[in-house]
Design goal:
Uridine Diphospho-n-acetylenolpyruvylglucosamine Reductase, domain 3, 11 helices, alpha+beta
Length: about 260
């Protein structure tokens, strides 16, 4: 690692001030991506601002909305009884992120802020039409994700919570990398009050995206058969040692059909 300073503020205002005072400062949430990047000397922050003492934890259910504080761990999301009752598909998604160590350390805010192209939460946020709350504003999921590892967040902006409107039904299916369990392809299908939304993670070169062709087909007939003729173009899909672009395009359809078949 490179040398850096470290702060662990106890208030959101102090954390925002620390990040705003140094353009090379980085916020530390769970550290599941940042720490390995530092070890590999791929990033050189001058200051790490640890968000662990800000009190941004917990899940709240109010009416048809579930609010998850930004520093809530994946394990806490997966175990929350209120969330299981209101949006079980989101709790299930959290339960299959990484392994036990990752789930007990990684946070929903950190995952969304990092926007890894193979992360699970971006698919849930986009499919469910979530709103990302920060110390400055509210950002819709459709506006938040702007490309691989790129979001609408500005320098020093901190995710404080994520609001999820409960769908009529939904489900998430992913094809896991056998070693790390990240989503080589993951598809979240949700039937919401505003229509059907389908979000794909792990497949696209530009990160998470909505599959509008599937959404249109499912709006007319919400069943696996409805998307049998929908072709996902291989252009724009990721291709690496684990799967070709063509195979990932094929997996999008397979995972989508599985998700639709088990929505609840």
């Amino acid at each position: 690692m490179y040398d850096f300073s470290y702060q662990k503020p106890s208030s959101l205002a102090d954390a925002v001030k620390a990040l705003g005072a140094d353009a090379d400062a980085k916020a530390l949430a769970g550290g599941m991506t940042l720490i390995p990047v530092l070890k590999q000397r791929l990033n050189k922050p001058s200051l790490l601002v640890d968000l662990a003492k800000l009190g941004l934890v917990g899940v709240t259910v109010s009416g048809n909305t579930v609010t998850i504080a930004g520093m809530t761990t994946h394990a806490a999301v997966a175990a929350d009884a209120g969330l299981k009752g209101k949006i079980p598909s989101l709790a299930e998604l959290a339960s299959v992120i990484g392994d036990d160590a990752v789930r007990h350390r990684g946070t929903i805010g950190g995952s969304l802020a990092n926007n890894d192209p193979a992360a699970d939460y971006p698919a849930a946020a986009l499919a469910l039409g979530a709103t990302i709350k920060t110390d400055r504003r509210s950002i819709t999921a459709d506006d938040f994700f702007q490309g691989m590892f790129t979001t609408a967040l500005e320098q020093g902006e901190i995710i404080t919570a994520v609001e999820f409107p409960a769908p009529e039904k939904g489900a998430y299916e992913k094809f896991r990398n056998p070693a790390s369990r990240y989503a080589m392809v993951g598809v979240f299908v949700a039937k919401t009050a505003g229509g059907v939304r389908v979000a794909v993670t792990g497949a696209g070169q530009n990160g998470v995206f909505r599959h509008t062709a599937m959404e249109q087909a499912l709006a007319a007939n919400f069943s696996p058969d409805a998307i049998a003729g929908v072709v996902t173009p291989a252009d724009g899909m990721n291709s690496d040692i684990h799967a070709s672009a063509e195979y990932r395009a094929h997996l999008v359809g397979v995972m989508a059909k599985r998700a639709i078949a088990r929505v609840h």
